[in-house]
Amino acid sequence: MRKKLFLLFVATSMLSIEAAPRAMAGQALQPVNVATAASGQSGYIAALIENRGLDVKYGIKITNMMMDFTEAANAIKLGRAQASAMQPSTAVNLVKSGTDIRLITPQIWSGNSWVVKKDAPYKTFVDLKGKKIGNFARVTGAFFFSAVIAKEHKLDLEKDFQMIPADTGALLALLERGDVEAINMFEPHVTRMVLSGRYRVLVDFDIALEEIFGAPPLKSTVGMLKETVEKQPALVKAIRGAYIDAVKLIKSGQDEEFFRSKAKEFFNLSNPEEVAAGIKVNKENFADKWGDSFFQSQNKILQSGIGLGLLPNIGDLNNIWIK
């Protein structure tokens, strides 16, 4: 009898722990502004959370403030949002400028690649030395990751290549015209290019950096002010819970119907082949790692950027991560 009572107590306790952060029936929802990118995977996961009510499940109601990545990072700095999608490198820059940021949960890997024409003679990144290549502006995370990869090959991205900076559309045009030998591009454009049969991936940033540092580089996380994290731990758990649940849905493929309905809006994918490939890539690109060993991998990537002069030195990088 005592054993049965003990087991009942344990089961009841576990249920109580599981339900603790979730909204009770009739409980008022805490409004939360989250700044996020208006397109791509950051916008997609925000829309998925809203569609599935994953925020409500944890007692909060998220208002997604859709904007570009730079505006999203500034929104939290200006007090317009309690949380924001941002790159770890952005968090480092914000900390240096006096805005103390903490990263609470992952979103997506970089999804970037060096892409060349299918018949290009290049077999490795080193083969591009001295060639014209198209890249994003120096202030972007995409440039940051490409510079780290070059460094690991003992190359200087700005000295050992003829680099042409441009935005997404211009980069695609540069490669198509043959004005450059390779471009730094991100998903879903990479998938669309490969499916065309005219291009191939020379270097997948996520694979390359995982081999070097032990984990792919995070393109996006969710950041909050240190003050908010310390004063509102329940809010941190709620936002994190909603994002973790959304990533689980994506990783398990339970978002497929929603993805198909939003493929055009968020990823500009339209034909069935592109959408099918997009679903696969989406699963792969959402990040589901966190914890001490993962933080160390990301810190090594950030430290490499600091060594290149692309990021400021803020001291102990462990301070920006919340386990």
Q: Major sheet: size, sense and barrel closure?
A: 5 strands, mixed
The first-level CATH class of the largest domain is given as Alpha Beta
Counting helices, strands and paired strands, the structural category is: alpha/beta
Q: What's the number of extended β-strand segments?
A: 10
Beta content comes to 15-25%
Fraction of residues in H or I helices: 40-55%
As for the number of domains, it is 2
Report the order of strands and helices: HEHEHEHEEEHEHEHEHEHHHHH
Walk me through what this model shows.
The protein has helices at 2-19, 40-52, 69-77, 88-96, 141-152, 168-177, 189-195, 205-213, 226-231, 233-252, 256-267, 272-285, 292-307; strands spanning 30-37, 60-67, 83-86, 101-109, 112-117, 132-135, 162-165, 182-186, 199-204, 218-225. It starts with a helix and ends in a 16-residue tail after the last helix. The protein contains 13 helices and 10 strands. The protein is α/β, with parallel strands linked by helices. The chain folds into 2 domains: 23-109 and 219-320, D-Maltodextrin-Binding Protein, domain 2 (3-Layer(aba) Sandwich); 112-213, 3-Layer(aba) Sandwich (D-Maltodextrin-Binding Protein, domain 2). It has a 5-stranded mixed β-sheet with strand order 2-1-3-10-4, sandwiched between helices.
